[in-house]
Amino acid sequence: MKHCKWLIGLYCLVNVASSLAATGKLLATPGVSQVEGSAGGGLVPWAQLAGYASADEVAINGFCSRADVTDYRLDVCGVQFNLFDRVELSYAQQQFDVPALDTQIEQSISAAKIRLYGDIVYSEWPQVSLGMQHKELQNGALASLLGAKDTKGTDVYIAASKLHLGALAGYNWFWNTTVRYSEANQLGLLGYGGKNSAEKLLFEASSAVFLTHQVAVGIEYREKSNNLGLSEQDWKDIFIAWFPNKHISVTAAWLDLGRIAGADDQTGWYLSVTGYW
Amino acid sequence: MKYGLYVFALVVLLSGCRATNQLSLYQQLDGQQGIEKLVDSFINQIGHDSRILEYFKQANVAHFRQGFILHLCSVTDGPCSYTGDSMIDIHTGMNISEKDFNRVVELLINAMDEQQIPQRLQNTLLERLAPMRSEVINI
Fold first, then answer.
1. Which residue, among A172, A174, A243, would best test binding to B if mutated, counting the most B CBs under 10 Å from its CB?
2. What distance in Å separates the CA atoms of residue A252 and residue A259, rounded to the nearest whole number?
3. Minimum Cα–Cα distance from A211: chain B residue
4. Strand, helix or coil at A188?
5. Which of A133, A143, B33, B131 could bridge to A111 as Cys pair (CB 3.0-4.6 Å)?
6. What crossing angle do the helices spanning B119-129 and B61-75 adopt, rounded to 10°?
7. Helices assigned H by DSSP within chain A
8. ipTM, 2 decimals?
9. Among partner residues B99, B103, B123, which is closest to A172 by beta-carbon distance?
């Protein structure tokens, strides 16, 4: 009887939640969640804001992702808020496993993004957004050991995105380019700055084609700096994203993260799930 | 000679592609008949969506049907030109939100799915209609 009450309560809650859910954008247009918690692809933050909120709605999303490469594993979970398709706020927690050293590195990321112009589907020019990601390592011992100058840092980026309807032989084509200012070593998991601190403006890009209303396949590229002198390499992936409805998306990818902290050829799988309300 | 044959085959193939592309979007949508069926599906979709139906409370459905058929015929390069009221005149005062506009786009996609219009044709039609959004919303 008591359980029954709970079940009814839960049912009502789900009902209320789904009737309040933001649904004002077209399916799949918000993209998915990238590894630092911003709306984007898997690696690259995009100009779209997280979730389906249009100009008079608010959206809340939650996501978890796992990247499993040759010698490391990264788990990320986070939440995102979209206020009236103008401002995105997000918080993510990363856990980086280094089995060889029996070590775990944790990092938290608070981020914000503001839409400056446009709509990826309808505006004549691409949608443009400005974002920042403030990251703090909870345990900076390894970063310091490797020569990083700091255990926290702030990335700033500007992103432009556009969906071209029917542009590739009738299929919808999406692209995004991002320019990021960052001092982070491997997302900041290996700290910020270092003896080689050189190139700070980094280029990132994504491109995807929608095979159906619900399925997109694409590629991503993310340039990396080489502050620690450990031959940090640019990141690449090839992904497939599935949007069965406006409440969930599932993304799988094949990653090529190059050399990480002295270990070559870090390739492997990525899986990410985002829930939208 | 063999090389010449390959070139010939390639030219035939490519011209085959061009021949299909020469069909107007109107023809690819099965002309007047296809567009009428699509608009009927669309009206049926609207009829089942209480939020969007609100906007049509004062509307004459037969008038809307004729106008939209003519409009689609015209934007798909069919043998007609739309002479009805302008998009701005029709939608002024309706104060259609971005959210409701996208809902209507989804209803049109549902209607195209119902009529089994291939994805690529759907995208091409939406691409023709998308620029009119600024003449429809928030006015």
1. A172
2. 21
3. B119
4. helix
5. A133
6. 100
7. 2-20, 141-145
8. 0.89
9. B123
Q: Which residues pair with A163 in a beta bridge?
A: A174
Of B103, B120, B134, the CB nearest to A166: B120
Query: Can you tell me the distance from the alpha carbon of B86 to that of A152, in angstroms, rounded to the nearest whole number?
Result: 56
* pLDDT tens, N- to C-terminus, chain A (277 residues): 556 666 666 565 555 555 678 999 999 999 999 999 999 999 999 999 999 999 999 999 999 999 999 999 999 999 999 999 999 999 999 999 999 889 999 999 999 999 999 999 999 999 999 999 999 999 899 999 999 999 999 999 999 999 999 999 999 999 999 999 999 999 999 999 999 886 689 999 999 999 999 999 999 999 999 999 999 999 999 999 999 999 999 999 999 999 999 999 999 999 999 999 9
Report whether A206 contacts A220 (CB < 8 A).
yes
> Class assignment of domain A2-276?
mainly beta
- Which of B91, B71, B75 is closest to B136 using CA atoms? B91
Q: What is the pLDDT of residue B18?
A: 45
pLDDT in tens, A111-160: 999 999 999 999 999 999 999 999 999 989 999 999 999 999 999 999 99
User: Any idea what DSSP says for residue A21?
Assistant: S
Question: Chain B: residue nearest A213 by CA?
Answer: B119
- Nearest CB partner across the interface for B106, out of A26, A56, A85: A26
Per the structure block, which two tokens stand in for B115? 């009529």
Beta strands in B15-108 (DSSP E): none
Cβ contact (<8 Å) for B123 and A165? Answer: yes
* β-pair partners for A19: none
Q: Domain B26-135: give its CATH superfamily.
A: Globins (1.10.490.10)
Asked if residue B112 has pLDDT above 60, the reply is yes
